[in-house]
């Protein structure tokens, strides 16, 4: 039996692009959580609200696929936001067993406040990079996503 420190790992494992992407994602996620917390909102709530706001009428299953989370996770988030009066379910016009999700007036107010926080984080990042590097980063990240989808 081998000990964990004897497992073969590439010498540059922590220098991989995938690890750099993960570190960046964790740093941004942590900052969002810290700055949204005073608003009583988690980053997951913001993500769900902005998704439904941009595409009213999404179902829980559609949201789960788009956000790459389980339907149970979406159901839990929906229940919490619905309990706060920020989200509402409406019967689908053609499928009576399907419920569409819609942001309420209270949800739009909460989303507006949260989006201001996220916009500040975006500005912090883009100010640190500058316009040219920001454009390059967006292009490169789009290419990464495209390359991974094609794999």
Automatic annotation (TrEMBL):
Coiled coil: none annotated. Transmembrane segments: none annotated. Residues 7-146 form the HTH marR-type domain. It comes from the Bacteria. Signal peptide: none annotated. It holds the Pfam family MarR_2. PANTHER family: HTH-TYPE TRANSCRIPTIONAL REPRESSOR YETL, TRANSCRIPTIONAL REGULATOR, MARR FAMILY. This is MarR family winged helix-turn-helix transcriptional regulator. It comes from Rhodococcus jostii.
């Amino acid at each position: 039996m081998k000990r964990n420190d004897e497992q073969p790992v590439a010498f540059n494992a922590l220098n991989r692009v995938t690890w750099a992407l993960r570190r960046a994602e964790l740093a941004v996620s942590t900052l969002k959580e810290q700055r949204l917390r005073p608003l009583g909102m988690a980053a997951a709530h913001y993500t769900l609200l902005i998704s439904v706001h941009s595409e009213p009428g999404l179902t829980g299953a559609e949201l789960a696929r788009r956000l790459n989370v389980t339907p149970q996770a979406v159901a839990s988030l929906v229940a919490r936001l619905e309990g706060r009066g920020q989200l509402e379910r409406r019967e689908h016009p053609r499928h009576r067993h399907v419920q569409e999700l819609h942001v309420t007036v209270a949800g739009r107010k909460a989303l507006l406040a949260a989006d201001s926080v996220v916009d500040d984080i975006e500005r912090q990042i883009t100010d640190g990079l500058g316009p040219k590097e920001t454009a390059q980063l967006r292009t490169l990240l789009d290419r990464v996503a495209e390359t991974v989808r094609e794999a």
